[in-house]
Amino acid sequence: MQHGKTTEKAFQLNVSSEIGTLRRLLIHSPDRGLGKVIPSKAQDWLFEDIVHLDTMRRDEYDYYVKILLYFLDPDKVRGRIAELGPASDRNFFKPDHPAYFASDKVVDVQCLLSDILADEVIKTKLVAAICGIERTSFAAQQRLQSYDPVELAKILISGTLPDDAMTMIFAPVPNFIFTRDIGIVINDHILLNKPAKYARTREALLTQYIFFHHPLFAPYRDNIIEIPDNEHVFLLADSEVNKDLTRSTLEGGDVMMIAPRHLLIGVSERTTLYAAQQVMRIVFQKNLVDTVTVIQIPKKRDYMHIDTIFTQVKRNVWVLLASLGRTGDEAKKRDVIHFFAPKDVSEDLKILQFIKGLEHKPIEIENLEDLLADISKNDLGSTEPVQFIYSGNNEFPFGAREQWTDSCNLLALKDGVVIGYDRNDKTLEAFRTKGFDVLKASELLERFERGESSPETIENTFIMLPSAELSRARGGSHCMSLPLWREKL
Ligand SMILES: NC(=O)NCCC[C@H](N)C(=O)O
């Protein structure tokens, strides 16, 4: 029997901002594959360290799930918070357990995967495709075919068999917890990812199968956007390939549906200029937006995607890394060495805005703050002054330190209510200074339980998620979410 089988009824798919009240999203709870990351492979697998899986789950990610459920599907958790604490058996949080919360608002990709694997044809095709990219033996492929859909979903994600030896049949995909990067909803369309890094290839394949085969997405099958590679590149020697201009790689952290008719695309370590151009062509052709703004950021591990350097908090409030903005790092500017040292041009951020029909006349925008202020005022109709909160309160060296641990990577649950990591003290201080309540996730859940606050009434709040283990994986709460439906602003 399948547990946590997601309802077969098709559901609404629509995202037209980063801050409209969140109604449905895709997540993936840390699976057993994360516990298999070893020091020598951590960097290849895009982790910064090995993680302690049980702590990551009980003390950190489970709080993320409880907060999401309280906001999106409260009947699942209201009145049960005390029994769902870190000391519980965690069955409520295990997608393959009969006691799983099985929400159709907070949806784990693992459940969707096990649903589609119940179809023998899909199962055979997907197992063969994965065994192809993972170069497994024919015998291993046959063996995989024999597992039931729920177990097979776990194996395909974690790479580990459920035998006594917990045999690894192929590498894990530990970054699958960062569902943001597998796809992005653009109004009622979904743009699929083309990962830049080999470690994330299997995620893209699993996602492709889920979106094309799961009945929930059946009404949107014609709305799935995939971007092709440039065919000429197949004929060029590697030495002749300028990857940025010819290769299509794109990860969801670089795409933000920032306003109903405005899409932001980052060009970064992970997303190429060529991919950005392809997406722009397609979204204009399909009339999904009127404006595409391309933001080129330094190709650096620290920044990875644009959502690691800024996210939106409220219609008129943004959090960002000052060293890539107009304000710059004040402390650094006062330092005499930095003042006279040659400028590092790679640190430059470039912004070009394209308007549908006038693509040949892009507008250059000088800095990030100008772009974000323009979005607040002109796209989102904010009448309040636009405010910027800087990583590390823009104090040297905390801006860079806290950006590294995702101070700028926040998920808005509604306009002005965000969830992010608890470890970025200076950034949190800056939030307090701007008038935000800064609360631990556990404390907020207790307040909800006591009826002192509610997801409907709460305003201007930063919800702190414990993050000692999660931050070693180098992604924050924005990365750990793929919004499928947000209310229109
Ligand atoms: N949108 C994001 O910035 N996602 C974070 C991805 C972290 C993951 N370890 C990676 O390097 O791909």
TrEMBL record:
Coiled coil (residue ranges): none
Domain of life: Bacteria
EC number: 3.5.3.6
InterPro entries according to UniProt: Arg_deiminase
GO process annotations (BP): L-arginine deiminase pathway
Catalytic activity: L-arginine + H2O = L-citrulline + NH4(+)
Enzyme kind, highest EC tier: hydrolase
Entry keyword set: Hydrolase, Transferase
Pathway: Amino-acid degradation; L-arginine degradation via ADI pathway; carbamoyl phosphate from L-arginine: step 1/2
Molecular-function annotations in GO: arginine deiminase activity; transferase activity
Family in the record: Belongs to the arginine deiminase family.
Protein name: arginine deiminase
